[in-house]
């Protein structure tokens, strides 16, 4: 039986960013230097496949530091960053801590700290409960920062000193939504200090840009990623807003609902910054079993960003 044709448009860039590559490399390097177990606070990146494969190699994932026994094994902090209290607690217990916070998240931490030192109240644009937001809020004393999630939140802000404000943002937000929120902040508080645009990272911006190009041109779109991955969820939203009639965020090929995807003529595929390429390939293979596929890459940006391993690991490797 001949298979129906299917055009697949692959978004580029997609998948792993430099911060995720660095965080995964940090766990693997720590295992190579110290042997198993290596403790990791929170999911090192938001992807079950990545977490499970590191677990099989000897990584032990914990939610909080107090779940780590007294040990000489290292504890790695995830790419999302941690509140200041976490490395302080690790130091108090003489735990060998390795900080795999993405340098672009650390940059936001520094901005927030600088504004605080200059006496400004910090407005953080982000999603409540996300580990990056918890980590950024945790750089400042209680009450020194206020989280806003929507333009309505901006409208209802009632700061004690409206002329003495600054803003920073989560790195993995929707570029369009954040622009609206930053515009609203600047209209309400014209003297607010902050970055030129926002703190959304290059990887988030580039992946959303590729989806904007592909989503209007296809019958359906698959975003490969985890439901708890902020940047993957934003890719799904961008594809929906661009008018793609069928958009699904899927962890891997076994999650494809063939009653929805069995009759399409064109498909866009992207992957969140924490989703490995092998899962994209798995999905393409699943479609190739049912369709005669033609795959085309749609490139909207070139990426060459690289972050060296965390300093602690480079020193340990040198020893
Ligand atoms: S998505 Fe951006 S901020 Fe997050 S780890 Fe990747 S490069 Fe860093």
Question: Which key features would you list for this structure?
Answer:
four-stranded parallel β-sheet; 12 strands; flat; 319 residues; binds iron/sulfur cluster; 12 helices
Give a short account of the largest sheet: 5 strands, parallel
Strand order of the largest sheet: 10-9-11-1-12
Instruction: Give average pLDDT, whole number.
Output: 97
The low-pLDDT segments are: none
Helix content: 25-40%
| SSE class | alpha/beta
Radius of gyration: 21 Å
Termini separation comes to 62 Å
Question: Your description of this structure?
Answer:
- It is flat, with a radius of gyration of 21 Å.
- The chain has helices spanning 18-34, 48-57, 85-92, 103-117, 131-137, 151-155, 175-188, 202-214, 230-241, 258-261, 277-290, 311-318; strands at 5-12, 38-41, 59-62, 75-77, 97-99, 121-125, 145-148, 165-169, 220-224, 247-250, 266-271, 292-299.
- The protein contains twelve helices and twelve strands.
- α8 packs parallel to α9.
- It has 319 residues and is α/β, with parallel strands linked by helices.
- A five-stranded parallel β-sheet has the order 10-9-11-1-12, with helices on both faces.
- Bound molecules: iron/sulfur cluster.
- Residues 17-20, 79, 102, 104-105, 171-172, 201, 203-204, 231, 273 line the site of iron/sulfur cluster.
- Iron/sulfur cluster is lined by residues 17-20, 79, 102, 104-105, 171-172, 201, 203-204, 231, 273.
């Amino acid at each position: 039986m001949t298979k129906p044709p299917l055009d697949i448009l692959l978004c580029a860039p997609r998948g792993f960013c430099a911060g995720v590559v660095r965080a995964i490399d940090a766990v693997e390097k720590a295992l190579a230097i110290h042997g198993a177990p290596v403790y990791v606070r929170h999911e090192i990146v938001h992807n079950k496949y990545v977490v499970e494969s590191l677990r099989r190699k000897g990584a032990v994932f914990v939610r909080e530091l107090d779940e780590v026994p007294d040990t000489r094994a290292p504890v790695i902090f995830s790419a999302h960053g941690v509140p200041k209290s976490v490395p302080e607690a690790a130091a108090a217990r003489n735990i060998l801590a390795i900080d795999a916070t993405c340098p672009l998240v650390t940059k936001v931490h520094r901005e927030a700290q600088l504004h605080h030192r200059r006496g400004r109240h910090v407005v953080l644009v982000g999603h409540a409960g996300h580990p990056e937001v918890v980590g950024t809020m945790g750089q400042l004393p209680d009450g020194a920062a206020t989280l806003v999630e929507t333009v309505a939140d901006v409208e209802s802000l009632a700061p004690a000193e409206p002329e003495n404000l600054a803003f920073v943002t989560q790195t993995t937000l929707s570029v369009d939504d954040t622009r609206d929120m930053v515009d609203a902040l600047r209209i309400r508080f014209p003297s607010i200090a902050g970055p030129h645009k926002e703190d959304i990272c290059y990887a988030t911006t580039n992946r959303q840009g590729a989806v904007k190009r592909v989503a209007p041109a296809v019958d359906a779109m698959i975003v490969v990623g985890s439901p708890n991955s902020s940047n993957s969820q934003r890719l799904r939203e961008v594809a929906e807003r661009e008018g793609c009639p069928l958009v699904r965020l899927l962890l891997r090929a076994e999650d494809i609902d063939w009653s929805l995807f069995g009759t399409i003529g064109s498909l866009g595929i992207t992957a969140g910054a924490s989703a490995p390429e092998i899962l994209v390939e798995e999905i393409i293979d699943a479609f190739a079993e049912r369709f005669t596929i033609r795959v085309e890459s749609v490139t909207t940006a070139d990426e060459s960003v690289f972050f060296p391993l965390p300093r602690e690991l480079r020193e340990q490797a040198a020893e």
